[in-house]
Amino acid sequence: MKPAWLEGLMAESFFAACGVHQNCRKNEKNIFCLNCCQSFCPHCLLSHHPSHPLLQVRRYVYQDVIRLDDLEKLIDCSYIQPYTINSAKVIFLNQRPQSRSCNGSANSCYTCYRILQDPFHFCSLSCKVNYMVYQGENLSQILYKFDHSDFSISQFEDLRVDMADEGGHVTPSSILEGYGGSKKKRGLLMLSFGNRRKGAPQRSPLS
Ligand SMILES: [Zn+2]
Ligand SMILES: [Zn+2]
Ligand SMILES: [Zn+2]
């Protein structure tokens, strides 16, 4: 059984215009409440319950994506191929339509057969979840109890800026900075990026 938030997230049509704020600019529904299990627009945030945990959905190539940093606090994202947009890793929410079919020799998504980089088995969150459901596996083993403070309303203060700088390049994350390096600690973001190890602290030879 999928939890209600996951069911809602996978079924929701994001980036449709908000019915309440039809006459406002930037009224696309790109915020998902993990408590109410529904989406709404940034204008709705003002009247939304302030303590509800919220997830921001972004758009790339007309598809819904979620930052890996956010999503991996909710669900185990291993084997889902991440993409890098404006230096942030994202996961596609749903499988994308594709014209070519896989020739059988390449590594491809277990569910939709999209060609993937080597260590990955799924192109999107829904392909992983659907595969597990299809296999009769228990989803609770990949679901995490999340900390509400990680999804607080304060993270939306920069929403307008985020919406302005769309259009960055997407490249599949390289193997080197792939999934293993993504569980970085807060505050160490810059240092741990790319999983580079620093050697012993250097001391001046004169001291
Ligand atoms: Zn809510
Ligand atoms: Zn609205
Ligand atoms: Zn897929």
Topology of this structure?
Layout: H1 4-11, E1 31-33, E2 38-40, E3 54-60, E4 63-67, H2 68-71, E5 83-85, E6 88-92, H3 125-134, H4 159-164, E7 170-172, H5 189-192
Antiparallel strand pairs: 1-2, 1-3, 3-4, 4-6, 5-6, 5-7
The chain binds zinc ion (ZN) (3 copies).
What features would you highlight for this structure?
single chain, 207 residues, alpha+beta, seven-stranded antiparallel sheet, 7 strands, binds zinc ion, B box-type domain-containing protein, PLATZ, zinc ion binding
How many E-type strands? 7
Rg on CA atoms, Å? 19 Å
What oligomeric arrangement do these chains adopt?
A: single chain
Mean pLDDT: 80
List low-pLDDT spans: 160-198
The kinds of small molecule bound in this structure are: zinc ion
Order of helices and strands: HEEEEHEEHHEH
- Give the strand content: 5-15%
Task: Provide the spatial order of strands within the biggest beta sheet.
Answer: 2-1-3-4-6-5-7
Question: How many helices does DSSP assign?
Answer: 5
Structural class: alpha+beta
Number of domains: 1
Largest sheet: 7 strands, antiparallel
N- and C-termini, Cα separation: 64 Å
- Bin the helical content: 10-25%
Shape: globular
Keywords: Metal-binding, Zinc, Zinc-finger
Pfam family, one: PLATZ
Organism: Salvia splendens
InterPro entries: PLATZ, Znf_B-box
Task: Describe it.
By secondary structure, the chain is an alpha+beta fold. The protein has one domain. It has five helices and seven strands; from the N terminus they run H-E-E-E-E-H-E-E-H-H-E-H. Strand 5 and strand 6 form a beta hairpin. It is globular and about 50 Å long. The relative contact order is 0.15. Mean pLDDT is 80; it is low at 160-198. The structure holds zinc ion (3 copies). One zinc ion (ZN) binds at residues 33, 35-36, 48-49, 52.
